[in-house]
Amino acid sequence: MSSKRRDMVRGLWPAAALALTAAGAWMPLSAAPEAGTTAAPERETLPVLGPKPFIAYFKPTPIVKPLSKKAWGAAEVGARDTGNGLEDTGLKQWNYWDGPILKGPDGRYRMFASRWDQALGHSAWGQSKAVTAITKSLLGPYRDMGLNWPSDQGGLGHNVTPLRMPDGRYAIVLSETRNGDVFTSASIDGPWRLLGSISVDQSKYRSVFLATDVPKEGATPKPWHASNVSLIVRPDGAYEIVQRSGQILLSRKGILGPYEVMGRSIFIDLPGLPQKNLDRLEDPTLWFSGGWYHMLVNHWEDRRAYHLISRDGITGWRFQGLAYQPEADFIRYVDGTVNHWNKLERPAVVMEHGHVVALTFAVIDTPKEAQTGNNGHGSKVIVVPFDGAAMDRDLAKVDR
Fold this sequence. Notes:
4-stranded antiparallel beta sheet; single chain; 5-stranded mixed beta sheet; mainly beta; 3 helices
């Protein structure tokens, strides 16, 4: 696509680069052929149930600090705000990842992130340690307050997921580097103590690592492995997990479980969801708003994510189009400047008054393998405003 036509395309939809197909489905404009040319093989069209896809509800981002063309990654990403989210502005120490946010009783926002030595490169994520960062403003800048549990395995923690439990305590759930370990505290600022590890009952359905994995019939179930765990408290008080495989796990016996595996991956044969390379799906995130359970899931190879919805959060999952993709113009400041990060991963929603008001993303300016340490490339967490109230209104009457 020529630069002139690309600029024209981006101007057609200020929130994201999207096109409406003849069938009435939204799809990325990157999938549309050039005018007057033979159509190249297109990506699958992405149908929606409501009037527009998730990506169309992102809002322009207010500028915290003047946009910089000299910040690390700006050459690849575009002039950007170093005051947005959490980052090591000089790349002297840390790569940051994860980054869900909870608002404390004092009105300040806490970001729960992981960090590791940037000099070791992105591949050292397995050494990441869990931290809390604080700010008065949702957008940031967030100030790293240090390790959450420095005396427990040196602070080790990744896939950091915070939540507030029904009894008022706070919990942090970990996966990948720790197998579903749960830390709790009476205060959002700690001290954090290890409660235990999540247990999973596989007597009815086996848990698998990837959506396409098939357990061997008659074989002893493998021990449960916590991977990309997203955990919420349901409106009915039960705890629900979605994991990397797209399987739903449910516990009515507390945060540690045991959780029952509710069936096979919801991704398999889901109408509308592209079925190619389902084993590349990762980072599912789960929440409830507007009468629907929502899920985002990222396809790391295709670098685009999808939005799914269900009335009961267990069955009847339906495809609701494109959630986001790096090449779309949805990370847009109020002055019109657009950022394009190479990777947008670990999405998490910020909820206020029952609706999503922002999303956080762990982002990196280059391919992960190119961030080798001390080379001017790194990762951080960004905060992007979102009009969840409008989305919930639009989806309220679907199937009603």
